[in-house]
Amino acid sequence: MGDKSFCGHESEFHRMTLSEVKNQIKVYNTLMLDIKLIRENPGVVRSAAKNKNFDPKKIEEAIKLDETYRQLLIEIENLRAKRNTLTKDQIDEGKQVKAKLKKLEPQLKEVEEKLDITLRQIPNIPFDDVPVGKDE
To answer: Is the pLDDT confidence value at 62 over 50?
Structure first.
């Protein structure tokens, strides 16, 4: 038989090292609603947030940040594709593309970070059988 936890049940979790538990906590802390779920079902997410007494404005903020992120990403990917097709004879155009990328890439990173922070603030959708309460 393997080691037993303090409550008398065999459990892999209870045999984890401290670093393994910390890694599990890191994984848990990174869990959040997928932006695709929010984008495709904003009403469901808003309703769930209201049921948890959460201000749905963060959901709207996440949707707007996602739109901005996707627009910037498309523009950057198009510029990178253009840069890859340029020849050595098109140095001036290459410099312009490089300058645009240098300006847009930090913007993309900033929007991505804001989106990530906002998504972490949105509560999970509860199961249907969970009663609506005064707080989470």
So the answer is: yes
